[in-house]
Amino acid sequence: VILLGELSLWVALLTSAWAAIVLPAGAATGREDLRASGLRALVASFAMLLLANAGLITALVRREFAVAYVAAQSARTLPDPYAVAALWSGQSGSLLLWAAMIAGCAAIAARHRCAGDTGETVASTVLAAICLLLVAALCLSMNPFGRLAFVVPEGLGLNPQLRHPAMLLHPPIILFGYAATTMPFALALGALGALNAPAHTASTLRRWTLIAWIALGAGLLLGMWWAYDELGWGGVWAWDPVQNAALVPWLAATASLHQLRLQERRGRFSRVNLVVAALPFVLVTLGAFIDRGAVLPSIHAFARPAEPVWFGVLLGSTILALAGFTIAGARRVTRARTEQTWLDALASTESGLVIGGALLLATAFAVLWGTLFPLLSSWVHGTSVSVGAAYFVQVTSPLLLLLAAAIACVPLLGWRATSRATLRKAFAAAAAAIVVIVTMVATRTRDLFTLIVTVVCVSGGVAILLELWNVWRKRKHAASKLRTIGGLLAHGGVLLICVAFVGARFRSEFDAVLQPGQVLELSDPLGGHWRFVSQGASIFSRASHHVTAVSLDVERNGKPLGLLTSEKRQYLDVFGEAIFLPSTEVDSRTTLRTDVQLVLVNLEGETATVRVLFHPFLIWLWIGGAFVLIGGALTLRARTHAS
Amino acid sequence: MSSRRVFVRAGVRAAMLLAGARTVRAQGPSASASRALPDSSAPSHLDTTNLFVMDQGAAIPLHLPPKRGARPVVTAEQRDALERRFRCPCGCTHDIYTCRRTDLDCAVAPQLHADIMALVNGGHDEDEIEGALLSAYGEGLRMVPRAEGFDLLGWVAPVAAIVISLALSLRVLLRARRPGADA
Lengths: 643, 183
Hints:
The complex is a heterodimer of chains A (about 650) and B (about 180). Chain A is about 65% helix and about 15% strand. Chain A is of the alpha+beta class and about 650 residues long. In chain A, the strands form 2 sheets. In chain A, strands 3-4-5-6-7 form a 5-stranded antiparallel β-sheet. A 4-stranded antiparallel β-sheet of chain A has the order 2-10-9-8. Helices cover about 55% and strands about 5% of the residues of chain B. Chain B has helices spanning about 1-35, 75-85, 95-100, 110-120, 125-135, 150-175, and one strand at about 175-180. The longest helix of chain B is centred in the N-terminal third of the chain and has 32 residues, at about 1-35. The N and C termini of chain B lie far apart (about 70 Å). Classes of the chains: A alpha+beta (about 650), B mainly alpha (about 180). At the A-B interface, α1, α3, β1, α13 and α14 of A face α1, α6 and β1 of B. β1 (about 345) of chain A pairs parallel with β1 of chain B, so a sheet runs across the interface.
């Protein structure tokens, strides 16, 4: 199985090299058979990489410890689902999966090619070249099938923090999102390079950008849940370079979706839109360079960094290719442009899309700038300046406010011109805003940021609800109805996420030492009264770890919420020896107003030191995130329906 | 058709040769050298994590003697806020406060917290503790760039990005407006 997997990897190297050579050669010589062969080679690369992945998964599940990667990531005591997840827990395994996903995109592009114009060839060649580079990095530098000099009796297994259900979903979904960004990149280069880009280019670009956007969004949301549920630190986002490396392409993809919608609707074919569409993948390669090459320290980084040169080459080539095609395509597009004036009214959806896209790009830049600033400062004055959460919160808060304000205006604007009918929505939104202001002033809310964001979110939410009701009643065309509802849900979801961000400003935490039966009474930031009764400690063993746990019976305002149990775990290897440092498992209860989290800090005899954390409105992050994703999925569905 | 078969056969043969050569290279020299030391490309059994490796020895002792008749002048809230302004030198990118209260197996943040507590109990104020931390670890310990010199760019660039993006979009919209279009 190992040999088959490794052979498949090498064959994938040959097939992707073949594709990368014969596709442009076929186009240059006009030989259709060469082009067809190149496209078939792309499909073959995908098949080979699937086989290689299957080979590595089999080795991980069978605990073939002769393979270095398996010895480092899998263990006999590791449950089978996590043994499969070990495919993406290490540097080379995750790269193998990523390469297979990119090859999958390339195979889809190859199978669905249109008439065979230059744009398609460029796109396929770009995809083949990306595949080739990644597979070459795997074969020559990070071979996941590399053998150990000896067979170890037991592998290391996954860190306790990685043994979480999110591990089964978050990394592959994020990797899929990264892979899906290759399609808009390749298609945009193809369109920039084509003499006459096909009319459906904007639509195809937007579909693939939407797929990448949904996957990245889902991955980010799962990652936040993982961080919240596993680490017991009271947060969901640490502004870590690896987290930012996924957020920045998502923001760029969001900007691109706005720009492409304008292009699709108004038929304007701007090269700026194509460059923005290509941007997410460029940012993904930058992220890969930073994270995989350990250029910047990160808590999410792999224990063994890869040779940064491979990812440097990938990043350099993508930037050069984008720059080259943009410059080369500039003259053609300028010549093709006929209509200089296309805007009927400043107060229109078109303006909203342009301003929204620009704000999103500015946000992406701000996050990227903060992420790269330690690197820049160390180049300039030799000292690497730390840029942490405090910086990002200060820099992104005004941007978030501007974006929320822009979103609140979405339902008030119409295509081409804003009709008088929207005035009713505007009045309702303004009335809601006044109610919120009066309520918050009455409750003595002194935080200006909280006041402004709440007003914007509530008034925007009211306007969105009214518009949803309108669309639901009046629109007849199913695809158009679905698309509009999807867009409104996604924008409404962002407003709900903003509510959760405001709630995070009022997070509070308490440490307490409890004996069995002792009562702890606390107030949450929203004035709820909480009562915790210690049920004492328990010590027991599970299959792969020893457990020390403490349980607290919880009541909120006299209403029982059940038991909260937090554990300290000591993982053991197959010989019963302790591996890794003890880890903590937190427990939480969610209500619409506040989340409560219990963390066991220490246990001495029957005396437990615990930490209780309150997170106001955290649930709205998950609900808002779900709305965003459902909105995206509905829009994608509408596109399929329409086509 | 036959040329394609020849090509495929040659490719498979070359791939098998390459794979075989790589296996021999991985097993040969290391096996003959020592059983205790695996080759450099393979993870050694000394690995204790498959994630980012923290620098657990990054803590530097803070030499600041306690003041005579010292009484704490920094409250617990001020101490926590101070810890949030400096990063943990283990390399995790968190601040000291967050790192020591997170399930990250870090030994450095608790050590720094103990050092800061010692300074607080030694009667030192926030400025003195900040000075002691910066003199031991350097300016890189701050969680935000300073608003001076090149570091000022850290703050200016995002603001410039917002202003430029809004100005550019406004320019695009004004230029795209049809003559006689509504405001």
